[in-house]
Amino acid sequence: MMLTMMANLKEGMDFLIQSGWLEWAGVFTGILCVWLAAKNNIYNWPIAIVSVLIYVLIFFETRLYSDMGLQVYFLIMNIYGWYFWTKKKNTQEQTIPVSTIKQKEIIISIIAILLLTVIPGFLLHQNTAAAYPYIDSFCTACSLVAQVFLARKVLENWLIWIFVDIIYVGVYLSKGLYPTAMMYTLYIYIAWMGYKGWKKTLA
């Protein structure tokens, strides 16, 4: 029993060391910023900025180029979201309230996801050594849409995140990014809690 416990402890330590401190820093800041967003806390934005800068480096090293480009977009949207959340809609509201998705936004989102999956996926497949170009591009497209809705406090952003995070878990496991896969597994739970919490504010 003791030998088994010691062996498991050694495997755990080896796992942490091999994963690298940079990825673990990205995991910590990534989880923290999503948790704060689910809590409707504005401080999620500066922490998210740190997280995306870390993941630009990680995704470059693992040749997930769509994800790397997505982090640059996230950087811009995090700055926008930080600004948008501090706006006062009127004298009664201290911050922008949660809203629900409109039919027009659904149609635009579907079209955007289709275009941002097929075109970048084809270009990456033809011109780079990108891993999973179409899956990567699809996840990127969904994330682009979800991030816009998050920045604008649209409730359904959390449902999109749940869907895309499930796919991301499989992608990162296949690339050996185990801490990141663990992070995205936790994201699924946080996103569900965020959806329920934001929905209560509407009620």
Outline the structure in words.
The chain is mainly α. Helix content is about 80%, strand content about 0%. It has eight helices and no strands. It has helices at about 1-20, 20-40, 45-60, 65-85, 105-125, 135-150, 155-175, 180-200. Helix 2 (about 20-40) packs antiparallel against helix 3. It is globular and about 45 Å long. About 35% of the residues are buried.
User: Which class best fits the helix and strand makeup?
Assistant: mainly alpha
Q: Biggest sheet, in brief?
A: none
Question: Beta-sheet strand percentage?
Answer: under 5%
Number of helices: 8
Oligomer: single chain
Radius of gyration: 18 Å
Poorly predicted regions: none
* Count of beta strands: 0
**Could you state the order of secondary-structure elements as H and E?**
HHHHHHHH
Termini gap: 53 Å
Give a quick summary of the entry.
By secondary structure, the chain is mainly α. The chain is 80% helix and 0% strand.
Helix and strand arrangement:
Layout: H1 2-19, H2 21-38, H3 44-61, H4 65-86, H5 103-127, H6 133-151, H7 157-174, H8 178-202
Please give a handful of descriptors for the protein shown.
203 residues, mainly alpha, 8 helices, 80% helix
